[in-house]
Sequence to fold (372 residues):
Amino acid sequence: MGWLHLRGQQKLAAPEALIADDRASYPDLAEIKGQESAKRVLEVAAAGGHNLLMIGPPGSGKSMLAARLPGILPPLEAEEALEASMVRSLAGDLGEGKLSRRRTFRDPHHSATLQALVGGGPRARPGEVSLAHHGVLFLDELPEFNRASLEALRQPLESGRVTVARANAHVTYPARFQLVAAMNPCRCGHLMEPNRACGRTPRCGLDYQGKISGPLLDRIDLSIDVPPVSAADLALPPPAETSAGVAARVAAARALQRDRLEEFDRKGKLLAIEADETAGLLADRVRNWSKPRCNADTDGAVLAAIAEPDAEGRALLTRAAERLGLSARAWHRTLRVARTLADLDGSDAVRRLHIAEALSYRRPQPRTALAA
Ligand SMILES: Nc1ncnc2c1ncn2[C@@H]1O[C@H](COP(=O)(O)OP(=O)(O)OP(=O)(O)O)[C@@H](O)[C@H]1O
Ligand SMILES: [Mg+2]
Fold:
């Protein structure tokens, strides 16, 4: 066969990519009763690719919400599917060698070692951060992870890739994942409920939440309280809104972002960010892993250019920054989220109401006042 092709007598059939059967569905948002504001934030997180932290008492539905994120994210684009499959194949995790357009959902246990999480070891396997490339990394009970593991997340969260040491060299793997973290407000879990909290409030909450370092929290655009579900909400019939409905709005918002960022890419503005990389094909790949694909990946000049609010929005943000003492990072976080809210609205301009809603998703302050 092959030699007939080489002699120009027969044409070989083009190879066909094996595509995995992706029909098996994700759990649906319609199973979650109440928690309307948490669901809204999950939609915002999906629309802009933002990292999300949920803080709430046991049984409030945090793990349920997280598991429903991949179901509202758009399917992987061809290039993303290829990249994600390459990493999984390196880890010997690709099943029958079929490509998949599903976003992976990785939820390592908090006892996972540093190597299991970020990769490395004698055979330099990719870790969970890379297996979650273009997918979701869910860290449940965040403060229970050891400190070194949490700190090691900072590099991939910043750059979309991770460099791990081998015996005599370094290997770089892609690691552009969306982080979703969940935690109780304190060790006993009931800090916010006056009749159930333990006798150590507010110390117990401050100690527990203090295990998460500032630089890690700085990479989390959305941080919300998930209150207990009320009995009245539980008694209601299931909500009408399904994951499919939310996914359609998310896809529309993502399409706006993709077009906008591609425009920047054409002008060479995105690539300029990584101009110091070593030359060659490999550098192109590595740069590709780091290329911003959604609002959450933008920073600096690109963010300033795409999320400049209108005059009223800017006035509100300036006032909030003065009153609340927002750091420069918090200012950027607000702009990123406001850009996504405008995209969900189909609005070109970032307006005052987008800034106002974005400001409401700031990290809840430690509950000294409430718990005392
Ligand atoms: N909003 C809700 N609607 C319907 N069922 C819910 C809701 N919230 C929680 N449940 C029920 O409670 C169970 C526990 O929810 P889940 O595991 O998501 O809580 P959690 O917030 O992650 O708790 P923990 O802090 O203990 O991990 C679910 O399996 C589900 O049966
Ligand atoms: Mg849970």
